[in-house]
């Protein structure tokens, strides 16, 4: 096997020569293209960058973003109320209540396609107070349902369940008939009395 030392010196000289030429090569910066200067055929990485003009577009987009977030948040909370057990139960009770069907007619449902459910649904702290518009085949009315839980482990007591017609007439559905769905059964009444 021939020795490698004689080959090493010519290769080292070749590398030294290439390194020296690489160090002396310098590239000049290319100015950025100007408007109407024609198509840019080549874009080099070491070109001079254009000056950045300060943009005020965030002054328009930030309020629009905040407004969109506020509307989305309200829509999400309203949708959560609309699908809560309180609203679906009161809607079912309106459909099955004879007096409500006599006033509203058949096909009782929300008055608008995207209903607004006003009030508070806080079952954890025992406070329910909801208001929303309903309609039937005869007319529409504002339904209000109020209920509270007097003790932490108690049962909800309904204080108001009414319909307010468009002319301002208030109809109390809770006390109008003897059979309404929000009164405690005799067994529940005994449990409430025993707890108190």
From TrEMBL:
Pfam families recorded: Coa1 (PF08695)
Annotated InterPro entries: Coa1, Coa1_fungi
GO BP annotation list: mitochondrial respiratory chain complex IV assembly
Chaperone listed as a keyword: no
This protein's UniProt keywords: Membrane, Transmembrane, Transmembrane helix
TM segment ranges: 58-77
An example Gene Ontology CC term for this record: mitochondrial inner membrane
Protein name (Swiss-Prot/TrEMBL): DUF1783-domain-containing protein
